[in-house]
Specification:
The chain is globular, with a radius of gyration of 18 Å. It is mainly alpha-helical. 80% of the residues lie in helices and 0% in strands. The protein has one domain. 30% of the residues are buried.
Length: 236
């Protein structure tokens, strides 16, 4: 019974993340033909498509675990690695292109400064997925790393939601930090309910993820990152 509860709680968290992402991108991507929104480039179509496939795989894998279909889960994991690589490649590509895109950025940042935010998100995603793959034989570590990898890339979905809430845009950093914290807390609560303790992966990895938001906002404006952002812009 404990195993069933554990598997179902992971599935619930996975569905919550996927649902949040779909709702966030509904207007600007999934249902864009029903709204008056600007056209997007082929690169953004590919980027969005690959990310959608990743989210679908993430939910599918969580579902397989909840049904104890471990062999199918492991076989599908090979495809998951390939899709994760594409998520990183297209994510970084889109970030480089955004360095020269002229549109207002949150917190008064320039386009070159703002590139730090998605770059860090993609980096955290890549590191966590790679670590999860290396710990694939230890499910208690593997599944938590995968969950944190998903939370790490919520920045873009949250930003899309803020487009619909002008009054909250001035609180961009607070909202981003709060959403990340809310999902991390959900993971911590799930751990506590099941085990009456919190796994270090969630405790330390989740805390680092949440704290990364104010750290990103600070570092993006430093000369060190501005030179990197300028280099990224020069690649276009």
């Amino acid at each position: 019974m404990a195993a069933v509860v554990r598997n179902r709680s992971y599935l619930v968290l996975a569905l919550a993340l996927a649902g949040f992402i779909v709702v966030a991108f509904a207007r600007t991507y999934y249902l864009r033909y029903w709204f008056d929104v600007p056209p997007i480039t082929k690169l953004m179509h590919l980027h969005s498509l690959v990310f959608t496939v990743w989210v679908a795989l993430f939910v599918t894998q969580a579902t397989l675990i909840s049904k104890r279909a471990y062999q199918t889960h492991m076989r599908l994991g090979v495809a998951g690695v390939a899709v994760a690589v594409l998520v990183v490649v297209f994510g970084l590509w889109a970030t480089v292109v955004s360095a020269v895109t002229t549109r207002p950025r949150p917190m008064g940042m320039t386009a070159e400064q703002f590139t730090l935010l998605p770059t860090v998100a993609i980096g955290m995603f890549a590191v966590r997925v790679a670590a999860a793959v290396s710990y694939r034989e230890q499910s208690n570590i593997h599944r938590r790393l995968m969950m944190l990898a998903m939370i790490a890339v919520l920045g873009a979905p949250v930003a899309r939601i803020l487009l619909l809430m002008p009054d909250l845009r001035v609180h961009f950093l607070a909202v981003q930090t709060s959403i990340a914290a809310a999902f991390v807390i959900g993971c911590l609560v799930a751990d506590w309910v099941r085990h009456r303790t919190v796994h270090p992966i969630y405790a330390f990895g989740g805390t680092l993820l949440v704290l990364s938001w104010p750290l990103r906002a600070w570092f993006a404006r430093t000369p060190a990152w501005e030179s990197v952002g300028h280099w990224m812009a020069s690649l276009n």
